[in-house]
Design a protein that fits this description.
Blueprint: H1 2-11, H2 14-20, H3 31-48, H4 54-73, H5 76-85
């Protein structure tokens, strides 16, 4: 996640940053925070996916799957750690 955000900062990609930064970093990784992060990533995917480089798009999709899978699987802390590491 950090690498993706840094890449957007380097490219001055303000639209995805504007969408994701209000929901990241997560202070406690509870389900509601993961849900909001997943919603933001869905928005980036839907609205800006065609403008992202393929590797960034793939990372957004991978992060989205991780954020969506966490609350259902009861993996909040593990998902937050995974998201931070990406």
């Amino acid at each position: 996640m950090v690498a993706l955000l840094n890449g957007w900062c380097d490219r001055r990609a303000l639209q995805p940053l504007r969408i994701v930064l209000p929901h990241y970093p997560m202070s406690n990784g509870f389900t509601d925070e993961l849900t909001e992060l997943a919603r933001a990533l869905k928005t980036v995917r839907a609205q800006l996916g065609a403008t992202l480089p393929p590797q960034e798009f793939d990372k957004v999709v991978a992060l989205l799957h991780a954020a969506e899978g966490g609350p259902r699987a009861g993996l909040d802390v593990g998902v937050q750690t995974y998201i931070l590491a990406m």
